[in-house]
Structures
1.
Amino acid sequence: MEKTYYNPSDLKKFTKITEWSEELGNKFFDYYGKVFEEGALTAREKSLIALAVAHVVKCPYCIDAYTKDGLQRGITKEEMMEAVHAGAAIESGATLVHGVQMMNKYEKLSM
Amino acid sequence: MSTQSLHKRANELAKTEKQLEILSNGIFANGELPTFKQKVKKTGLPALRPKQLEVLQINVGYMCNQVCSHCHVDAGPDRKEIMTKETMQQCLDVIKTTKAHTLDLTGGAPEMNPNFRWFVEEASKVGIKDFIVRSNLTIIEANKKYHDLPEFFKKHNVHVVSSMPHWTKGKTDKQRGEGVFNKSIEALKRLNSVGYGMPDSDLKLDLVYNPAGAFLPTDQASMEKDFKKALVDEFGIHFHNLFAITNLPISRFLEYLIASDNYEDYMYSLVEAFNPSAVANVMCTNTISVSWDGWLYDCDFNQMLDLKVNSKVQHISKYNEALLNNRDIVISQHCYGCTAGAGSSCQGTVA
């Protein structure tokens, strides 16, 4: 069998993390469940945010999970891709805004 | 997407034994996932038994003008199994005496049975409370001879239940075939124009949503809201209720799951979403399903797997409701489809 760091079937075992630290694991899953309930934001909106973040943090498990979640909620592929772009724009913006730091340092060091 | 049924293609999944073998082997045989029977037992629930009979569902034939990729009937234009007038008469004899309050005609496209209109006329005379015809919508547009179906349904106070996998063209056509979306929209407009589905109308028009892929349906109420908004805003179309139905891993949907390497993940999703409170109300507990050739089943899915009722009475010609109500329901791993999440039945969620 090919060895890889990521195994898609590990996602199904996610809740097993509780076995080695029950209290913290349970607290995390309670929190996680609560976060994604309907609130000031709809569960649908949260699903799209989760999908965008999943891409930014480059978590293959989360991408699988929230693509499926989006399909179940009737979220269209256009909506999903726009969410990914929103995440990507913030991520590249975060890189580019450091360009100001570079410019500042450049100016400071230059005569 | 194939334009032929599994039967026509002589696909091995056309054999029900093959499907049942797949559903019992692999992850269920090696203990990775519990069988449906084990799961029900482990949850502390009793074995499935019928309650009061409420729905008599009659499949008048597997012929259909569409070849949907998720079809659990393996219906299509190439299927020749059609209920005869003689069997219809046997059904009518039962309809006159049944305690069921709902008569549910399905197919295939039931309208393609040459005796469909006669059967509806005769059945409607009995005065059963809720008389459903499951119409695929496009049949209304398929040929001039079907254009008046909305008026025909209205005349006999039929409750129309139609499939509509999504409010966007792309998703609908991918599941149901090229051009299906536009024809469905036209058919819905025709139904609306005679009063079906209008906000205060007694002419009931409900839609059925099946996920277009290897995932489960979401909350029925929120889906209904999204469907209503999209169909009214974009097309001025009205309907009453949306039934969210889970695709069961049999027939052409099973073929799709296997071909797309989604079978195991899908079964995991179904088992993980097992909802004990859905078990008590699954449709096999209040339904008898009749096949085109008069055999009796616990549900339409068991019919397609040729799992006949576990009773001395197995055919409409020998129908005996009291005897039938005293039976064990036949189960296999496809039953997980009806107990996942909010549950699933031909009338939508059950939990």
2.
Amino acid sequence: MLAMNFRGPRQIRLDRNKPEPEIKHPYDAIVRVTRSLVCGSDLHLYHGRVPDTRVGMTFGHEFTGIIEEVGSGVQKLNVGDHVLVPFNVACGTCPHCKQELYGNCNESNPQATAVGGFFGYAHTGGGYDGGQAEYVRVPYADVSPTKIPKGMDLENAVLLTDVVPTGYQAAEQGGIQKGDTVVVFGAGPVGLMAARFAWFFGATRVIVIDHVEYRLEFARKFSFAEAYNYRDMKDPVLFVKKATDYFGADVCIDAVGCDASGSALQDLTGKGLLLQAGSATALHWAINSVKKGGIVSIIGVYGPPWNLAPIGSLMNKGITLRANQASVKRLLPKLIDHIMSGRINPKEIITHRLPLEEVSDAYRMFSSKLDHIIKPLLIPPRAHAA
Amino acid sequence: MQTVLENTIDEFQDRVIADRNLDTRTKDIPGWGMDADPENDPTYPMKHWNGADHERLNYEKAPQQPLDIEVLHSVERPSVTRVFGTSSPPSGLSGTIRRYAFQYSEATATHWMTLILADRINVLEGKLHDLTHGILPNPWIERGWRAEWKHNRPAFIRKTATTALLITAGFMLLKRKNKHK
């Protein structure tokens, strides 16, 4: 089958003869991929920032597909069902899953206890091949995969596997109250969603900060946010303080993670010398920009083992830090309702639709922010097969 | 070798000790539990607390996926999870380094830095494997240069020219140095 094949940092090949996945467990299903997205967090893998990313792996944790085969223990899904597959691999019965922390499942990732099981996300994420391929093995098929509701656009469905719930949870974690000012660092797909959903929780002012001008323009339109370029500022923290009556934002959201730009020191130690897990610039700004007693929500991805962040300010300002991988299954009913009711049309963020065969181009364009790209969608050749 | 405390600990005793304390000690501790408030959970609403954390040993588990490949597992858990990915089992020199890394917990730099070292060696192994199987690298496609050429041509040409210039200058400098010797 066709599949994306990681060959090293910034080097991706389209594999034409990767063996098709097989059922390995009674609760497995094999899915023929119909749509797949490249995620901003795939870029952390692409840039070589996530440990235990092995050559030969297929990335991709945002995909929809048609069930081709099910294991003997699968009861809720049938061959032919068209499903959206949340990026979390979750057993549904461990203490974390039972408390709806599906992103922290205890029975899906042997390699790391600090990380849940995710499709196509290094062996640090469990070693599962992902959805930038024609077929995928989906474990625990009865737990998270969800039949695509009748009438839902396929592009909206695939966005429900990660970016929409992740953006929603970023806002939810912020504990936003009516009247709050929310600052979102990062105008990538997740930042755009987080800013848009901040309004759903009652924010009355939403500010997005980034350095890519076309993305800021997109944030103004899609997220109804004020959007500012930090390259036009001497000090983004001072900007936020002045913009919030020298008080600080009620809630700050870090929607960037370890690939952040904006600080030479963080860039050198995090991205150049690898002395920390990427650059923590956005988190640094978030902690310093939020009000005393405010909430910082981290949804941007950081790799292990550590990052430079102002813990002293966190303590002295009494900040609550909230963070997690999105628990997609928990949020799906609410988000399906928001989409089907027309409150949000997430597919507006998909700017590029490419055949799977052009996966290397998709990564490079997304990484280098070429051609005003916001979110690239991959379509495998067998997506429309009978 | 020095005996470290973590190697002497009786495993799976946490709940036994907690239950024993609940039965025997808590009634003698003034104020025990009087301010407990299940809603005062900073992870709410992400987590719907139902006490499952305290049933950590007795939850319903799926059947074990057959271990027909080598799967490294964190020393912070007793064994592999009930399912696991089978993407790229450890192999070669990078595999040996990964096995070493997995002797250390996720709290240590040794674990993660060693894995990054293994990743970089794995890239070289991949290139060697390609060459020995007649697969030549195609940076035009694989590194996305085609996309750069299409959408970012002036910057791409500038970057390529600068790189070529630096390599040539370095080469000339090296040549000159060797001549002086």
3.
Amino acid sequence: MNRRDSLKALGLGTISATMLLEACKPNNKKLAEDTNDKPETEDASRQPGEIERDKKLKAEKFFNEHEMATITVLADIIIPKDTRSGSASDAKVPEFIEFIVKDKTHNQVPMRGGLRWLDLQCLSRYGKTFVDITEAQQLEMVKEIAYPKKAKPEMRQGVSFFNRMRDLTATGFFTSKMGIEDLGYVGNTPNKWEGVPADVLKQYGMEGV
Amino acid sequence: MSDIQIKKSSTTYDAVIVGSGAGGGMAGYVLANAGLKVLMLEAGPFFDPAKSSSQLKWPYESARRGASTNTRNFGDFDGAFGGWDLEGEPYTTKDKTEFYWFRSRMLGGRTNHWGRISLRMGPDDFRGHHIDGLTDDWPITYDEVKPFYDKVDRMIGVYGTVENLPNEPDGIFLPPPKPRLNELFIKKGAEKAGVKVIAGRGSVLTEALPGNKDRGACFYCGQCNRSCKIYGDFSASSCLVIPALKTGNLKLITNAMVREVLTDHNGLATGVSYINKDDMQEYQVNAGIVILGASAGESARLLLNSKSANHPGGLANSSGVVGKYLHDSTGSSAGGWLPQLMDRKRYNEDGTGSIHIYAPWLKDNRKLDFPRGYHIEFGGGLGMPEYGFGFGIQDMNGAVPGRDGKPREAGGFGASLKDDYRRFYGTGFGMAGRGMAIARADNYCEIDPEVVDKFGIPVLRFHYKWNNDEIKQAKHMQETFQSVMHEMGAVYGPMQGPETNYGLEAPGRIIHEVGTVRMGDDPKTSALNKWCQAHDCKNLFVVDAAPFVQQGDKNATWTILALSMRTAEYILDQRKKLNV
């Protein structure tokens, strides 16, 4: 099988590798909106039952509107928009979190309970739930639970919740099209691996290793 | 009237092969190419990587971003149709021992998703009794298997480097992929720690395979575990069964779960019975030779379930050894990250989906407190972010100063946290020991007297315990990992201690289970002769990892392929001589 045949076998037709490389660059793609929910029917890589299970999970609703609103605010506090890329909600992280807690059910109680814990903290401090307090208050609250080593002992449950929320937000963001582009991952495309580039070898003094 | 019938075929095949993985696939390939009329039965569906691989999918094409599920134990894109638990196909354990049994139900079996790490067993691995008396010798030597390893290398392709090491035989190698940046740090650190690191050995075509027009050369996506659309790596589906089908001599029936091996009044095998999962009907097929390549567990189960007047303890089991001497590789692992690599330059570092470097076992066990060795598989680089990316950043980002050089508080949120993920990307690495576990008669599988699967087939019950030999080996692995990571200048956690048996994985977790239908010269202590032919039933052969007397620290697949080819050639020879 020569290279052209190989590309054909990959379903890439006769396009050149350079075009392919271009096409695979995330910034050439459309908005993040269309990234997450590709139809999985007719996919020969799936086992019977897998497609149905995913469909069923997607049709179910776990978080209520208030919980989703809270998740969205928290996710954007964790991963805000900056000069390089958009925010967690721009990359549809809240939707990912909704799916993953249905898929990995061990997250359900800690997430639901953690959100409620947060609201109760805010109610007793500010008289309102997390989404309804001011941005400054939200940040003040988050600071109490975002730093595991210096958090007060009575904040430990909040720290555990925030660690989970941070993990899910980061994973959701950096596995989205937008996040992968931000990160600068340039693989997942046909190429020829010829070792670490010379300038990088030199940078780390690894030429002779 | 019952709607269940047993449908008997009037055709008699030259051979029927149960299973389509490395062992069954190779036997089918050799026999069909030699002109025999062969029937192959596979318990799962047809699978062609060219059509059914998830290769080159992006994480966001999975709603769970590539995370694992109960039906995809190694992630949403992994190539295995199967896993540790199959719906309706249980197995049990005995005396509160542990064993985990991974089964892939699909054409090509577990070779669709395996790590492609392709190591030959060495001369010492075949003669364990001579080394320390702890295990039995194989009835064959490395020199007898070498020509078949050579043929497998040429036919299927394996990369590596010629090293002339004592018990790590070289093969006929394609060029290996160069190490990734993290792997250069590993190599340098390991060598300082006294651990020799060499190029990996993997069945991936880093160059076109001479004389083969059906397989493409690797294009370095690093996704061998998804199976390869251009057949750039070895799967039994793409490299053996699908080519064998093209001879016209191999008939394949998929979704055929074999129930038992049928025998006649002379005790010879006449064929097998199976349930067709598509129509749920029972079938019997006839063949002059029965070849089992169903996996070490399933082949033992089939034999033990094939009882008859001539074979009251199960077929090929007058010795009582079938099911015994079950052994998986040992495994223990560690990982960390390299602060030196923060903010590293980006480039495509996917490489191959097999190992780029590894450390063979070169130490002298006479100077250590445990028998037999292990090799270490290493990895790390700018891999594709998938589910799990960024987890636990609070355990990393307080360990190093921020961009401004000032100390950072662990955890956090916002712009500086977002930047941390970028800074830490590509700094991680991992290492995993894979060692020789001792084959013992009291580690075994047997038929559970009370439990059947959804097809009514009695299931396996496992009894498996590690002992101090394996635990001390795992301890040595952990100590070695610590010194390698120290020499690398890495950040890493404390070593795993006695509370986890030094990170020793539960039996079965490494998916190298072998030894359940072992070969030997003495019919009283072995089920098969040195050609993998049953002592008790001369037209019955086993070609998976069940015949292994004692596995080396080397992954089993390359030896399965070599032995299956050897057995298939023996069958051709014996047919010529009219012996089978």
4.
Amino acid sequence: MSRVHVTCTINGDPAEFLCDGGQTLLDALRDEAGLTGAKEGCGTGDCGACSVVMDGRLLCSCLVLAPEAEGATISTVEGMAAGDDLHPLQQCFLEGAALQCGVCTPGFLVAAKALLDRNPDPTETEVRYGLAGNLCRCTGYDKIVRSVLAAAQTVNES
Amino acid sequence: MTVTESKPRYKYVGTRPVRHDGLEKVTGRARFAADLNLSGQLHGIVVRSPHAHARIVSIDTSKAEAMDGVKAVITGDDFPAVDPSNRNYDMCVNIMARHKVFYEGHAVAAVAASTRDQARAAAAAIEVAYEVLPAAMTIDEALAPGAPVLHDHMMTKGADPPATEPSNVSDITRFAAGDLDAGFAEADLVIEREYTTKPVHQGYIEPHACVADTGQDGHTTIWCSSQGHFNVRSSSAAMLGWENTRIRVIPAEIGGGFGGKTTIYLEPLAVALSAKAGRPVKMVMTRDEVFRATGPAPGTKLKVKLGARRDGTLVAGDAYLIYSGGAYAGSGGLLGAMTVFESYNIANFGVESLNVVVNTARSAAYRAPAAPLTAFAIETMLDEIATELGIDALDLRLANAVAEGDPSTMGFPFARIGFTECLEAVRDHPHYSAPLGPNQGRGLAAGYWFNIGESSSATVNLNEDGTATVVTGSPDIGGSRASMALMAAEELGIDPLDIRPVVGDTEAVGFTDVTEGSRATFATGMAVVEACRTMVAELRGRAAKMMGTDIDDIDWVDGQAVYTGSDGDKAPLSVAAICAKAKRTGGPLTATGSLEAHGAGPGFAVHLCDVEVDPETGVVRVVRYTASQDAGTAIHPSYVEGQIQGGVAQGVGWALNEEYIYDSDGVMENPGFLDYRVPVASDLPMIDAVIVEVPNPAHPYGVRGVGETGIVPPIPAVANAINDATGCRLRNLPMSPVRVLEAITANGGSDG
């Protein structure tokens, strides 16, 4: 079976890769584009560890076929920091100890950024429901929620 | 909030620096096992049994071997034969079945091919003929007369009289003290209760993964995610029949373990495939495989009887505990027996516990193994006793709580422990007296875990610029590297951010046991401190040479060598100054510490939980949670809080939602996070972690393990809160909406 050529934009840069027709976007990002920040925790869209933003929509990249990325604009955790400057969410996660094992962290950061992009000043409840598609088994979510609220404040004050 | 006993003032210990591995983890650069790819790598896929119990009649791999891209196929025949008398027997035949399969998901073959799709297609083409056998899926089925016996060699250990026929009971543990009959005769109140719980999964977000690269010289390198890479080495060597020196294991970042990654599943398969193919082989489990084939915690049946005097003094306890270990002998029974009566002074007790095998995946450790379930029984029964006797539930626990010098179940006296302090911390917390809303209830529960020591090694290397590298053998599953750096910083007087804590591979650091039993910061921390103290002695000697004086005239003060002799003033020398002259004073500055750690201080916790119960649906929401826990000394308080909060969340999931569900053929029906529902952010409130610090006298900084105790109280805390809200006693897990609703509407206040 011949492979599919996909041209897209990943984290602001033009990108192209070859993929199988049945390959997921997650596998293409990890195996073809070399971006292993997004993780596979379940492969069924239940854990959010593979969260990316495609054309402005937060989604589980394990549920998207790679050829669907043709012409799309994709953001992953690798694109959150601007050079040496961490995104306020990344900085707040570090300072707030919002990660333990860290395997869910890329998905949480991408999902939290998507949340703050559409709701810059969320309540605690809005953060909890906004991140309900991301599983963390280590932290009990307390420090994640606090760090997202702290990041929102940082962004709004700057 | 931290409750602190008087303790030494530290400069770095107890501070909250950004963790050293944090930046890589928030930028997506951290390398977990599945993130690694080697040149020429193949992909390995496991063929798994569709049956819960069956004899393997034949395996035909010929079609698969002829398929495109297939480079190696293995079955049980590719590994040395192993006998039930071998202590690694269960592990070996669990990793790859020989002759029989014992659960749906049991590995029977594996294949490596150039692509994952090719490997999957080849796995599907392997033809396995089974003779399906009747299965025993539950404790009741396994113990019933005429039950299918899983293992012909399983003669119950500890049976009295000795077993003469094989059965599904692997072992019986008995502990006793005092006079049970006299104790119950002395009691004014005796209650007896029965509980059942289902297997639950640790639920780490990262599935098991490894890459193995075996060279033509017969040596292999394994990159993997595990809680102990030295154990991966020795276990793989045992399965392969190799010497340890032929295997190097390099730890990747680990994406959660909670006990489930203290054992191995994939690594020897990847090595065998790699050896056969002459290429590196990568294996990554799917979530479905993780659920079907890896470590659930045991399901249980518990029967406990407690006797108390009218004043609340506990005088007698009798427990009969059954733990299902899955397909092979488990350890839940022993650990249940060790924990059931441990938290309270009960002069007369008897415990009998059984480990039973059933046709489900082999159980693995899960955070304070067995203890959350014994706590479920004891802590809910204490609430019933308190109500019956008209005594405050917290006062009842204070009156019976073990303290320094009291005997443990095993007979030895407790050293200094902080149970009473944890109870007092909760009593003094504003949550304790806060008003409750409609349909809300409050539950209190305590928990205990003994923690362990074991072997640890550490190497401290000072660099030319005065910074330091600390290498240990403990995989970091929750921030332990930061704690190692903080203790080294305190010893050496170097800023923690100038110390690089590293988890070394099996050829880079001395032997270190698995990260389990909440031992990393305790035991490996002790090895780091020992290495640092050896280093400080060396630094004093080097400074003496530089000053032209004797080592006895040099003290180590605040990270500097200070001259205390009488020969005038000499400027103190910093670590950096000594490092700069190392070549002239004796060469590189390196020191090691390795030890068998003793005195892991028991960890106690007391939790307070508010729930709101919807009387129409039976849905239980946790609306407020406060958790106190004795950490001894919190080295990095943020990560101590994180351990407590994470344990609470897992415990709440165990209490309310989580369970393995099988169909009538023994096939798991909920092997995904959609149907096996772990708590999400919107299920939980903030979790107020109250760190109590009663230093452990056996550790140089007073550390107690903190990783596990936090999962022990939540199940009874939630159950007691549900009872407070509804008047219903639930004694079967999970306390799902349907069970709660039944209890409220139909069963007159209990679930069966």
